[in-house]
Design goal:
mainly alpha
């Protein structure tokens, strides 16, 4: 009686392991075919996208009350310069870009 329970349990466990491994390998095959995870991410070290997307004119971004999405498109130098010219506040250019965006945003709002 105990041997039959052991054999039935071992068969159920083997089927479970088989289907688990089948799902893992099947999904990884689909992911490789779709190319997910193999594309190069073009995010810079400061967490923003490629530099070519940055606007050239600071005043086009900062009209009335700027939003953080538009401020994130500016470079660090542009953020520091905007804070200096508009509010006479000196910001450290060595700070993280997200910190500079938050400080400039708080100045304008």
């Amino acid at each position: 009686m105990s041997y039959t329970f052991f054999i039935v349990g071992a068969i159920i466990f083997a089927i479970y392991v088989w289907f688990t491994l089948w799902i893992i390998f099947n999904q990884s095959k689909k992911q490789r075919e779709e190319g997910n995870g193999t594309q190069i991410d073009v995010v810079d070290m400061d967490g923003t996208e490629n530099v070519a997307d940055e606007p050239k004119d600071v005043t086009a971004v900062i009209r009335n009350k700027p939003i953080k999405l538009n401020l994130k498109k500016l470079t660090k130098a542009q953020l520091v310069a905007a804070a200096k010219t508009d509010f006479d506040v000196n910001l450290d250019i060595k700070a993280r870009k997200s910190l500079l965006v938050n400080k400039v945003y708080s100045l304008y709002n």
